[in-house]
From TrEMBL, chain A:
Database matches in Pfam families: Yip1
Lineage top rank: taxon: Eukaryota
Lineage, highest ranks first: Eukaryota, Sar, Alveolata, Ciliophora, Intramacronucleata
Keyword check for Transcription regulation: no
Comp. bias regions, Low complexity: 33-42
Biased composition, class Basic and acidic residues, residue ranges: 17-28
Its membrane topology: Multi-pass membrane protein
Gene Ontology MF terms: small GTPase binding
Key words of the record: Membrane, Transmembrane, Transmembrane helix
Protein name in UniProt: Protein YIPF
Coiled-coil intervals: none
UniProtKB/TrEMBL annotation, chain B:
Residue ranges crossing the lipid bilayer per the database entry: 87-106, 112-130, 142-165, 171-192, 204-221
Phylogenetic classification of the source organism: Eukaryota, Sar, Alveolata, Ciliophora, Intramacronucleata
GO cellular component: Golgi membrane; trans-Golgi network
Annotated GO biological process: endoplasmic reticulum to Golgi vesicle-mediated transport
Record protein name field: Protein YIPF
Organism: Euplotes crassus
Main subcellular localisation: Golgi
Keywords: Membrane, Transmembrane, Transmembrane helix
Keyword Transmembrane recorded: yes
Ranges of compositional bias, category Polar residues: 15-25
Region entry Disordered, spans: 15-40
Length: 332, 222
């Protein structure tokens, strides 16, 4: 269907019976107006294949025929200036890109075999939906953990493109266990009672308070960020729901060594120094985790920073409150 | 009062694998159902006395326990036994562990300890089983829960010993006893759990098991 009047432009091949399960790759000549990258910002293609909703995209093919362009030209009665005419020709070209799309889409829908896909919302509750986020090996998870505790690496920890949820979930569970176990051990070690009647009793009620708080923080903050970013129209690369959860989870990784140090230093240091050392450790861990989080988020978002200052402030505030609660309620 | 035959006893206890007669239609997945249909005309479980039923079930639990706990070289025997999962063993062990811990715990609130241990055992086993499935494992959910429950046996023994004999002994000896129990439990269950995933993910599947038993061991030492 190559029209010699169009010069070297070759319209892409229309494949009507392509199976819908395939995720269209960017090397295919697929043209979707919603996805035009005007500033050529999207250098990474890693998130494209993870978006399961991409499998629904139809093949939109612009077929520009000469008659369309010329008939649109005829609608304008008045004679315009040269540059204006050129501008309007450009707009008409865009319009004719859109209109043939709509006609072709209608044709294609009529010709396509009707495949009914049940995309029910119950699929979020199956195990299979989340299996793609657990597709990592032990080596990868260990390297991601180490790099998230020491965020001085180039690039991103998701360099091989896979967003994983194994790390975050087990980091949060380990953090809960670490707070319970090490907090009680530190309490036991620093318990000095001259009075023989007061015996040491373990403080298990702390567990029932700390575990819900930390788990809710881990669940609610990414949800809040997701909603916030969607509403304020900040642009980002690909789907970020689970990437936000993943980044948040890995940012907790720096707290676990901090709590271990907290426990290990309890028998060693005298009491007053121990107090200020506690604060020092917790704030250092909080700073490292925030640094890691911003470093990762910068690579996900592509917009001006003025728009995300509110979100950043809320994240910092959340971390600050978490550190305060850890010091006052959970570990003492 | 019918006295059921010895053959049947052997068959039920050993999961129908070691009987003298050949049974071409035996399927390990459906061991219990085919057994029930086969033997229904021979005797009726409803008419036998209750203590016989309980004795038989306890024997089944005991056999599974020895299969799981004693280190054996033949993994296939173990796998065959555990395909016939049951949750009675884990329930009994969990209750014993929770009771021992709530009696001997060093807090003023023993019921809180019981609640926490009970919930942690079942919720933890469920989470570890789901984790195994998410990593692409080919073991069913209830089989994982069954394995993790049966591997609680050393920790239960350690908790019992701790409660009865070691209350006023040096802390160091308690640490040693609980440590040995922890290593025994982990070694038994990691063998199963790591088998069901790809070798690159063995560490990922084994780490939650360690965490689970570590937390329970700390509870014993509390």
């Amino acid at each position: 269907m190559a029209d010699p009047r169009l010069g070297s432009y070759q319209p892409p091949v229309v494949e009507i019976n392509k199976p819908r399960g395939e995720v269209p790759k960017k090397e295919d000549e697929e043209f979707n107006l919603l996805d035009i990258d005007f500033n050529n910002n999207d250098q990474s293609e890693s998130d494209v294949n993870l978006d399961s909703s991409l499998s629904d995209k139809k093949q939109d093919n612009p077929v520009i025929t000469d008659e369309d362009i010329q008939s649109d030209n005829g609608k304008f009665g008045n004679r315009l200036h040269d540059d204006q005419e050129e501008d309007i020709n450009m707009n008409q070209l865009n319009d004719s890109l859109i209109n043939p799309n709509r006609q072709n889409m209608a044709d294609m829908e009529a010709n396509e075999p009707k495949i009914v896909e049940n995309r029910s919302s119950l699929r979020y509750f199956t195990v299979e939906y989340y299996k793609e986020y657990f597709d990592v090996t032990t080596q990868e998870v260990v390297s991601r953990l180490v790099r998230s505790c020491i965020p001085l690496y180039p690039g991103s920890i998701y360099d091989n493109g896979k967003v994983d949820l194994y790390g975050p979930i087990w980091i949060v569970i380990s953090l809960n266990i670490a707070i319970t176990v090490f907090g009680n051990i530190a309490r036991y070690v620093s318990f000095d009672s001259k009075d023989e009647d007061i015996k040491y009793t373990s403080h298990l009620e702390g567990l029932t308070k700390s575990v819900p708080v930390i788990t809710l923080y881990f669940v609610c903050m990414p949800a809040f960020l997701n909603v916030f970013l969607n509403f304020t129209g900040v642009q980002y690369v690909g789907k970020i729901t689970f990437k936000l959860v993943s980044i948040y989870g890995y940012s907790f990784a720096s707290f676990i060594p901090a709590i271990f140090l907290y426990m290990a230093s309890a028998p060693v240091l005298p009491h007053r120094a121990f107090n200020s050392f506690e604060w020092l450790i917790l704030f250092a861990a909080g700073f490292i985790s925030l640094f890691f989080m911003f470093k990762e988020m910068v690579q996900v978002l592509r917009s001006n920073f003025e728009e995300v200052k509110v979100a950043a402030a809320v994240v910092c505030l959340g971390h600050f409150i978490l550190i305060l609660m850890m010091k006052w309620k959970f570990l003492s | 009062m019918t006295d059921y035959p010895k053959e049947l006893d052997q068959k039920i206890v050993l999961g129908n694998t070691n009987t003298g007669r050949s049974n071409p239609s035996y399927d390990p997945e459906k061991g219990r159902e085919s057994l029930a249909k086969e033997e229904q005309e021979k005797f009726d479980t409803l008419t036998e006395p209750v203590c016989e039923t309980i004795k038989r079930d306890l024997l089944m639990i005991w056999v599974k326990l020895t299969y799981v706990m004693v280190p054996r070289t033949m993994i296939k025997e173990k796998a065959k036994q555990l395909r016939d999962w049951d949750l009675w063993g884990p329930l009994v062990l969990c209750l014993l562990l929770s009771l021992c811990l709530s009696f001997s715990a060093n807090t003023d609130d023993g019921t809180l300890v019981f609640q926490i241990v009970f919930i942690i055992v079942w919720a933890g086993a469920a989470i570890v089983a789901i984790n195994g499935q998410l990593l692409g494992g080919n073991i069913s959910f209830f089989q994982s829960v069954c394995v993790l429950g049966y591997c609680l046996f050393p920790l239960t023994v350690a908790a019992f010993v701790n409660m009865m004999f070691l209350q006023f002994v040096y802390f160091f000896i308690r640490v040693i006893v609980v440590g040995v129990a922890f290593i025994w439990s982990s070694y038994s269950s990691v063998g199963f759990i790591a088998e069901m995933v790809v070798p690159e993910k063995k560490g990922l599947a084994a780490f939650p098991v360690f965490l689970f038993y570590l937390f329970l061991s700390w509870f014993i030492l509390l």
